[in-house]
Amino acid sequence: MNIKALAVAAVFALTGTLAAQAQDGGKAGKEKKKVNWTTYAKKADDAFLATAEAARVGDNLLFYQHESGGWPKNMRLQEPLTDAVRKKIEKLKQGKRYATIDNKATTTEMIYLARLYNTTKDERYREAVLRGFGYLFKAQYANGGWPQFFPLSEGYYTHITYNDDAMVNVLKIMRDAAKGKAPFTFLPDSVKAKAKASLDKGVECILKTQVVQDGRKTVWCAQYDENTLQPANARAYELVSLSGQESDNIVLFLMSLSKPSQEVRQAVEDAVAWFKKSRITGYRLERYTNADGKKDTRLAPCAQDDAECEPLWARFYTIDGNRPFFCDRDGVKRYSLDEIGYERRNGYRWFNSDGIDVFKRYETWKEKYGLK
Known about the structure:
By secondary structure, the protein is mainly α. Helix content is 46%, strand content 10%. The strands form seven sheets. A two-stranded antiparallel ribbon has the order 1-2. A two-stranded antiparallel ribbon has the order 3-6.
């Protein structure tokens, strides 16, 4: 093991631990839980970015970057690049569905490399960030949306993708880049201008895709047809719906915009009203052991005096009746969590409490921007 990395670990506890895991594959006497790349990147502090280990990871990112300028998802990009890994990745780059904005891919790498450039002034990292922006600019549809994968791949992957905050993560980068906000202070004015134009188009897409229910705008579906801007299905269990999962971060993003237009302000007000109307109270998610001896999940009533019982929002609500629903891999809507199979019931996030963050942010936002 690299002695310098061990010294860093002693000085920088958290990031040094990450570095050591990256170098020895996550093993130190016994198997350690491997850290996924997006968590690793998020926890890398400024002190770590000045180390040789941080630069090694940066060089990894240069290798993983696709010729289009984007990066893949769900890979531990911080781990050592063996010959076998290099060979595998080179092959993957030649196939379909490599570069993506799904699961925080591309945006995470761009932020890390921008921070690394600010620390090291290594031009290779700056150029990689600029190629990343080029990728995002080219991938954006004329209507302002982004597909899940680019270059385009057949299937639902071409849909405008709010799912898992994919498009919102891109728009956050465009918002910060347009202002020259850290870590993108080094961007040329031409890129800042393109980022501003991209941001404006993306916000316009959000406004156009806000679903109308009973004559009033509500929230958003997780994905939309890129041509018609109509809500669309994705995987078999991801049907057209109002999304109580993705919509919270969309409205939080809208509330982060400076000098919001009247249309943006109205969109926020309508979305917040939907969150208030659609919250589920008096229930909590409970983990329990079922009759087969397996850990399982169910929706259980809360005691009336249970102060910890936060409101919940379902992941999916019907567009026509605003009714929470659930779905198995057979693509059939069901209206109770216990009506779908064990695998999907426990392998998907069907409820969340993230709407609470919307309410908290709205309390301060409305003082400045709320409609009178």
